[in-house]
């Protein structure tokens, strides 16, 4: 019998991963008349300029990892 040529396994195509979009800076502020108000509070350790992230059950600073449990916006 004749030898059959070896078949190479088919290369699997990887699905293109979608890049997540970050939060827009404009979503952190609210225009109230002629004033601008911040939605999130600042971190008490890092000081003004570092926003704390609002989660379902906590508020977290992304820079120093300070956490306040119980949602306080």
SSE map:
Elements (H helix, E strand, L loop, with lengths): L28 E4 L2 E4 L3 E2 L3 E8 L3 E4 L5 E3 L4
Antiparallel strand pairs: 1-2, 3-4, 4-5, 5-6
Summarize the model shown.
The protein is an all-beta fold.
Strand order of the largest sheet: 3-4-5-6
Q: What does the overall shape look like? A: elongated
Task: Compute the number of helices.
Answer: 0
Sheet/helix structural class: mainly beta
* C-alpha Rg (nearest Å): 25 Å
Which percent bin holds the helix content? under 10%
Number of DSSP E strands: 6
Largest sheet: 4 strands, antiparallel
SSE string: EEEEEE
DSSP strand content: 25-35%
Mean pLDDT metric: 83
- Rounded to the nearest angstrom, the distance between the terminal CA atoms is 78 Å
Uncertain spans, ≥5 residues at pLDDT below 50? Answer: none
């Amino acid at each position: 019998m004749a030898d059959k040529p070896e078949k190479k396994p088919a290369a699997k195509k990887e699905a293109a991963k979608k890049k997540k979009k970050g939060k827009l800076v404009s979503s952190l502020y609210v225009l109230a008349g002629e004033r601008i108000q911040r939605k999130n509070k600042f971190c008490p350790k890092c000081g003004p300029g570092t926003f704390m992230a609002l989660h379902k059950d906590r508020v977290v600073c992304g820079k120093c990892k300070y956490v306040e449990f119980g949602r306080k916006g």
